[in-house]
Amino acid sequence: MNKRLVLVGASILVAASIVSACVALTPVAPEAVSTLPQSSAPDDADAIAQDGESGALLPPSAPPFSTSGWKTDFTRRTVAWEDIISGGPPKDGIPAINAPMFESVTAAAGWLSARDPVILFAESGEVRAYPLAILIWHEIVNDVVGGRPVAVTFCPLCNASIVFDRTFDGALLDFGTTGKLRNSDLIMYDRQTETWWQQFTGQGIVGQYAGEQLAFLPSQVISFADFAAEFPDGQVLARPTFPRSYGANPYAGYDSSPRPFLFRGQVDDRLPATERIAGVALPGLVKAYPFSLAAQAGAINDETGGLPLVVLHKAGTASALDANAISEGRDVGSVAVFDRRLDGRTLTFVANGDGTYTDRETGSTWNILGVAVAGELSGAQLTQLLAFDHFWFAWAAFHPETELYGAP
């Protein structure tokens, strides 16, 4: 049995036990799904510039660690070997979920609290929720949603929840964990070529696809209560039959730690290391919006790279990385980022203090999913922008030239 020891706060150690077999649950029959939010990745989402990640191949050299059991082409790499470190578990020591099974919202409510954070992903009329209470133990779910093969990923050490398209270069990839980290972030690998991929950037860093880029797909982290209210017929990832304490947090207190675990870089002191940010990546420009400022304002109207956008914040979502039980974690809320242009006009949003928002132009009422629920624009949908809910230290490490909203 392998363990990752996580240093938290005042030098306490928390052991997260790892096993390597996956047994699927009985699937729940899909039901009709309510109106879905419109998620729109930029046309060139698979080529978004990653500050500090050139993608250029480095001269071949032998890696300073054992390559036994790997079929990876280690002559191809884009990063320095010394930047890659062991996270503790071996290859697939943290087992991905490869045959996910789903249950109804009603069944999931038997073990998830209203405050539990879930990753919402929708595709072609199918909507699913992936509880962080499960992903914190598995980090990757290889799934097919609405006919699209996707990888739903979560790196606890960076608080990085990202969804990728698994179709790449004409092939269907499925992903596992290497047991390695870089900038404290999960390094994945695909089982077809055993290329190593950086979860945070979606870039191949070692192997056949070194320098290549996976396509990001927009998603949101919201509370289970918000998911259940909006999508009562939606599907929720069911707990696999692993010996895990699903709902428990093996990294208790981590998001209050002044120093990230297994991070060797310099922390950008413009924000506390584990401050949550909503990161927006546009071609040639990246910008971070602190949760703390978004929570104060409720709605941040901004223009980035010539694009009018709004960052919405809603209270009621627990941190997955605070208390021993995720459901008891402090309230960090949820954020969502949308293009605030609609039908030829640019809207300006204000928070109503009850988890809804009003645009000043028409007085319509909106929810955290960017849907107008009342008023002149009732039924309208804002276009969701590609944005990332991450810890600041990791965002700044991978995007050292990032702009910071609210900074002098």
Radius of gyration: 20 Å
Oligomer state of the chains in this structure:
single chain
Helix content: under 10%
CA-to-CA gap between the ends?
Answer: 49 Å
Q: Give the number of helices.
A: 5
**Structural class by helix and strand composition:** mainly beta
Describe the structure.
By secondary structure, the chain is mainly beta. The protein has two domains: 2-24 and 33-57 and 70-237, no CATH class; 273-404, Rieske Iron-sulfur Protein. It has five helices and 32 strands. The protein has helices at residues 105-108, 132-138, 224-230, 291-297, 392-398, and strands spanning 2-8, 12-18, 85-86, 102-104, 117-123, 126-131, 140-145, 148-155, 160-165, 167-168, 171-172, 175-182, 185-190, 196-198, 203-206, 216-217, 220-223, 235-237, 276-282, 285-290, 299-304, 307-314, 334-339, 341-342, 345-346, 349-351, 357-359, 365-366, 372-374, 383-384, 387-391, 403-404. The strands form nine sheets. A five-stranded antiparallel sheet has the order 3-12-13-14-15, with no helix packed on it. Strands 4-18-6-5-17 form a five-stranded mixed sheet. It starts with a strand and ends with a strand. Residues 1-51 have low confidence and may be disordered.
What descriptors fit this protein?
single chain, 408 residues, mainly beta, Rieske Iron-sulfur Protein, five-stranded antiparallel sheet, five-stranded mixed sheet, 5 helices, globular, disordered N terminus
Task: Please give the structural blueprint.
Blueprint: E1 2-8, E2 12-18, E3 85-86, E4 102-104, H1 105-108, E5 117-123, E6 126-131, H2 132-138, E7 140-145, E8 148-155, E9 160-165, E10 167-168, E11 171-172, E12 175-182, E13 185-190, E14 196-198, E15 203-206, E16 216-217, E17 220-223, H3 224-230, E18 235-237, E19 276-282, E20 285-290, H4 291-297, E21 299-304, E22 307-314, E23 334-339, E24 341-342, E25 345-346, E26 349-351, E27 357-359, E28 365-366, E29 372-374, E30 383-384, E31 387-391, H5 392-398, E32 403-404
Parallel strand pairs: 6-18, 20-32
Antiparallel strand pairs: 1-2, 3-12, 4-18, 5-6, 5-17, 7-8, 8-9, 9-16, 10-11, 12-13, 13-14, 14-15, 19-20, 19-31, 21-22, 22-23, 23-30, 24-25, 26-27, 27-28, 28-29
